[in-house]
């Protein structure tokens, strides 16, 4: 019981930090800061933080050959791709909406498992798929009620769905990496360091050649905050939480990122909720919950 409480503390710290992510990013997007530049700089900060953490805890392992192909795939598709798509989405959508679309990831995990691993979806997973699809339709139909998002709204939806898809790739691929190491968080963080290092190298041209770079102290403050707390510390806390909690619990808990993002966005960016956002988001959240509950049942049977 004590270990579970420690795991929950680690998890909620990570979730709260990720709940600031969308709001800070949306602020920078509204300030016309180049979001690809923001994503790239975050990689450098996160990589440096992982390096310092591993050196301090004496767990640094620079062996890049270990599971190199898997690490490379996670880095290019799951981390670099997802981060760039996430930050592009924030140009067109609120942080809450982007987080809702990112929580479509369980649906894409099901599809990847079906096409790659030949795992047939269960009844609950099919229902979850339908609910997610209905949630997207409801949000799209509510365009006129998103008063500050009418410009390029459909383009934002497109990028948002791709964000969820790329995060699905990350969850699917990283599960294959993390599963054998669930009780070795320092080993997982070593892999994260290598993944972020590859991502930093991949996006480095963006740092030097992008336009619309930050011009204010506030811009740099929030980029630093996102790099330290969301790209670095949140991942560390989350992976330590995974060593204390069962996977089904952490899957359900991840939904709280939407709640924290919404609260922060209402307070700091004056987000106006509407029935389409609430209903569509609830359908997508419910689909993720069903998939997590289904995972719990399958684990119980195993």
Automatic annotation (TrEMBL):
Gene3D superfamilies from the UniProt entry: 1.10.3730.20
Keyword Membrane in record: yes
Entry's transmembrane regions: 7-29, 35-56, 68-86, 92-116, 123-141, 153-173, 188-208, 220-238, 250-269, 275-292
Swiss-Prot/TrEMBL keywords: Membrane, Transmembrane, Transmembrane helix
Stored InterPro entries: EamA_dom, EmrE-like
Signal peptide: none
Residue ranges annotated for the EamA domain, each copy included: 6-140, 155-292
GO cellular component: membrane
Name the UniProt record assigns to this protein: EamA domain-containing protein
Lineage: Bacteria, Bacteria division WOR-3
